[in-house]
């Protein structure tokens, strides 16, 4: 039993680490998806104006923009409003002071497109208008975000598979020790006419116990870290939308416990197969 | 016909030819002694008959079907209908007498209240009444042997294989065990018993199969052959 308990601890910790990282990746991906979706919904083009324009120029440019096909709404955003919204994004109510008391932002038009497909043509057209110094839209962000999610998802998947295999191997090794200690019992049981299922279930239970213990540890760690990280990120960069813990913990629990049970079950079936062939 | 062997042979993995050309038929209700010198192959034959080992030549047929071809559920059914007393007992060292006997009932998923009733009754039959809670390793060799017998017969097997079940018993206890075997045989259990005990074989006057260096040299009803 002494040799066995080390193995048991090792198995549980491997499950904890594996499931912790699996859930971690899964949470990152869920958050990236949520942000990507949010940005995708954003069909705005921002047109920043040159600094030396007259009121007339402003009206002229606004009219030109309104005539671009696909434009639904044009709204003037003064440089002061721009600063305010920036202050909101960075949670810094004294940005102006930080910037040396001078607002460096240009005035701008916030253009809302009728649909996501209109954004790029509007952007192209707006850039050509005289007096427009710079235009931006969210599409690049969306694409970058999706690309990042994809890469993360693939890397995450590879790591997850590796870690899960490691967890299964450790569970299997741990259960194998229990099996070896009870080898004679298993054989006599089978000679007495026990079915494979009957012989299997205690080991199955043991494997799933290991899995669940590891999963609970991983889940505890995960929740603790997540709420900390979420609070920190929300406080620093507020335009990144972090899914609230209440929204993820349900599926995270199901995911982690389910994976723990599954890994435990697989880990117990593998080493037993050989001993059932009596 | 319950069991039949056809040109049955066994060569162990280390190359030792333990049995060759065994042809025998065992009928329902028989009481068979398996005799022969040490190393003659008695235990090997028993292992082949209850499918602990598989033949390397010929066949063991149970109900006309080769044991090699049995499906998993059929093997389970076969084992639920046979009992084995191993030459080395194979008891659970750290368990009580009760648990060792109850083991056979638990393995076939009998309910607990039935186990509670049947185990003490069985222990009484093998002369171990009241010894339920002793650790099986604190028992004498002969007592352990009777625990092994109790475990083998508690499921009322159709056929009982006993490998030298009287090996560690004094004449009186050994007599009692043989009476018990005669009783369960009269109740319908077929019995195959490997033994070195000339007295018992002479006294019982049953069918005697004699092995010598892995071959069958005698199959008669009556006394000791060697
Ligand atoms: N598992 C095994 N692996 C290899 N050889 C074995 C094995 N079991 C038995 N043998 C060999 O097979 C031969 C027959 O052995 P077996 O145990 O069947 O004899 P036995 O008649 O039961 O003897 P005993 O009266 O001493 O119990 C012996 O030579 C033995 O060494
Ligand atoms: Mg033997």
Describe this structure in words.
The complex is a heterodimer of chains A (278) and B (226). Chain A is α+β, with helices and mostly antiparallel strands and 278 residues long. Chain A folds into two domains: 5-38 and 143-276, no CATH class; 44-137, Alpha-Beta Plaits (2-Layer Sandwich), CATH 3.30.70.3040. Chain A is built from nine helices and four strands. Chain A has helices spanning 2-41, 55-67, 79-90, 95-98, 119-128, 139-181, 183-191, 196-236, 245-276; strands spanning 44-49, 71-77, 108-113, 132-137. In chain A, strands 2-3-1-4 form a four-stranded antiparallel beta sheet. In chain A, helix 1 crosses helix 8. The longest helix of chain A has 43 residues, at 139-181. Chain A is elongated, with a radius of gyration of 29 Å. Chain B is of the alpha/beta class. Chain B folds into two domains: 1-81 and 158-226, P-loop containing nucleotide triphosphate hydrolases (Rossmann fold); 90-156, no CATH class. Chain B contains seven helices and ten strands. In chain B, the strands form two sheets. Chain B has a six-stranded mixed beta sheet, with helices on both faces. In chain B, a hairpin with a 2-residue loop joins strand 9 (206-212) and strand 10 (215-222). In chain B, helix 3 packs parallel to helix 5. The two termini of chain B are 27 Å apart. The model of chain B has no long low-confidence stretch (mean pLDDT 92). Classes of the chains: A alpha+beta (278), B alpha/beta (226). The interface between A and B is medium-sized, with 14 and 20 residues. Bound molecules: adenosine-5'-triphosphate and magnesium ion (MG). The site of magnesium ion has 4 residues of chain B, from helix 1.
